[in-house]
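Re: the request from the purification team.
They wanted to know what the chain is likely to look like in 3D before they choose a buffer screen. I agreed to run a prediction and write the result into the notebook, where they can find it.
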Amino acid sequence: MPLPPPPLRRHSTKANNEILLKGIMCAAIGLAVLLAPYFIRSPGMQGIVASASVVGWFALVLGCGFMLVYGRRRLTGRSGPSSPL
């Protein structure tokens, strides 16, 4: 007896747009934190912002991850059922 087909998981357009927006915002925040020390003139403030570079890298990677999920959903949405992500 064959197994029934797996259920189709469709993601709404609103959910996809929210994922994209989160990705863009996180990536922008990450870039701002990473590039800010080069534009700040105060040495004390430069040191404070430069010490937060780990947070900037985390936000940049998280934003890129959100955008990859959005792209994957868009590609799989055209060709058939979406993946478990």
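For the purification team: The two ends are 29 Å apart (CA to CA).
Please add any questions underneath this entry.
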